[in-house]
Amino acid sequence: MRIAFATVGCRLNQFETDALRGKAQAEGYQIVPFAAAADVYVINTCTITAEADADSRRLARQAVRRNPSALVAVTGCYAQAAPDAVAAIPGVDLVLGNGGKPLLLAHLRDARKNGGARVLVGGSGGRREVDDYGPGIDPDRTRAFLKVQDGCNYGCSFCIVPEVRGGNRSQQPDRILAEIRRLHAAGFPEVVLTGIHLGTYGRDLAPPTSLSELCLRIASLDGAPRMRLSSLDPHEVKPDLIRLLAESPRFCRHLHLPLQSGDEGILRRMRRGHTAAQFRELVERLAAVVPGIAVSGDVIVGFPGEDDEAFRRTHDLLEALPIAGLHVFSFSRRPGTDAAEHPNQVPKAVKAERSRALRGLAARKAQAFQRRFLGETLEVAVLDREGPDGLLEGLSDNYLRVWFAGDPALRGGLARVRVEHVTGRGLLASLRGVPGPRRSPPPADSSTLPPR
């Protein structure tokens, strides 16, 4: 049976899709692209903005048009937030909330194409454990994503995530370490630790622990892939974590920090946990203590009440800092959040103009960061896909995308390359060698991993 997946939203959603795809493949499903004819379509949705809702509905309608006789399952945050709206889409057969997502395949076995949607959505509150997906592995990515935390206890005024994901809950450290050993034995060169609010990892456990303590335990493993941390709120990057990034070659020199605004008044109205001054101090410290680190960030333009002066402060802050990349979002009124009802909403045209300005700044910053590594040798994870003109594509620990000529057998492992040129799409490099054996034979307990 052919099954196709589509994902809207964050890296954690992508992790969950990858894990479900792996489980489907292990159960004998044939994985096909979402644009192909399939017997089952799964849309893993997002509801962070009204646009994400619209994208989720569009994908569901596309699936129905592509094969009207296929089973269409919609899961994820939009399904959790608005199950009746999803069930009303003609041709949708299963609406599954976040709590039921790990059991998707079992629910698909019971689903029928009978002209109506079966809705299985429970409340998101009261959940105390992280759902068990196993590792999220996409063969085209080379890297494995490992979910170690879910949910959020914060209340940012623009965000509905706590309503659809529930409160903070963490995976047990020993379980995480075992998964990392298993992924290493199966040959994955990089593992990304991910969560909805990764910086709060461990606070709910008994006894409590922290992300820094978990990372210290990972750094002490005898065998492990290189490790990357997904997004962290700036006020949760503690001195011991900075020290670890500086001292442990196992952890990638890369942090993604959601700034959201460089104006102190806007940050207060957003109910963020950091100030612009703290963000500036953190980025400057990271650049000084961790040579070559890539610091990227998120910014929301056009938050209610953001006037020209507030936007200028955001622009000037980012201009002054050694930022390597930036994700720019226009504020979208998310029904059910406080910010949707704030006065002084910013016109769409103004938001578009400010987005263009920050994206231009981000492009200049990215090129300046790339140029710093001309002539340097970097260790890259070689992705399992073909780059332009038949070149191999690699990703450095500090998130530089590199293309180079080499044996396709290098895909899925690590390589050392020397950066020769900076282009608009990334770096061109020459192969300098391979750092030891590419992968070890998987032990018995790794046999359940999805095939590479």
Notable characteristics:
452 residues, alpha/beta, Rossmann fold, Transcription Regulator spoIIAA, 5-stranded mixed β-barrel, 13 helices, 20 strands, 23% strand, globular
Largest sheet: 6 strands, parallel
Q: What's the architecture of the largest domain, going by CATH? A: 2-Layer Sandwich
What is the CATH fold-level name of the largest domain?
Answer: Transcription Regulator spoIIAA
Low-confidence stretches: 437-448
Q: What is the radius of gyration computed over CA atoms, rounded to a whole number of angstroms?
A: 22 Å
The helix tally amounts to: 13
CATH domain class of the largest domain: Alpha Beta
* Overall shape: globular
Question: Roughly what is the average pLDDT, rounded to an integer?
Answer: 91
Kindly report how far apart the N and C termini lie.
Answer: 20 Å
In which range does the helix fraction lie? 25-40%
Strand content: 15-25%
Summarize the entry for a quick read:
With 452 residues, the protein is α/β, with parallel strands linked by helices. 32% of the residues lie in helices and 23% in strands.
Characterise this structure.
The strands form 5 sheets. A 6-stranded parallel sheet has the order 2-1-3-4-5-6, with helices on both faces. It has 4 domains: 2-120, Rossmann fold, CATH 3.40.50.12160; 126-252, 2-Layer Sandwich (Transcription Regulator spoIIAA); 256-372, Transcription Regulator spoIIAA (2-Layer Sandwich), CATH 3.30.750.200; 377-433, OB fold (Dihydrolipoamide Acetyltransferase, E2P) (Beta Barrel), CATH 2.40.50. The model is unreliable at 437-448 (pLDDT under 50). It has helices spanning 11-26, 50-66, 77-81, 83-87, 104-110, 161-165, 173-185, 211-219, 239-247, 264-270, 276-289, 308-320, 348-371; strands at 2-7, 30-31, 40-45, 71-76, 94-96, 118-120, 136-137, 144-147, 149-150, 169-170, 190-194, 226-229, 254-260, 294-301, 325-330, 377-386, 392-396, 401-404, 414-423, 426-433. The protein is 32% helix and 23% strand. The chain has 452 residues and is of the alpha/beta class. Strand 7 (136-137) and strand 8 form a beta hairpin.
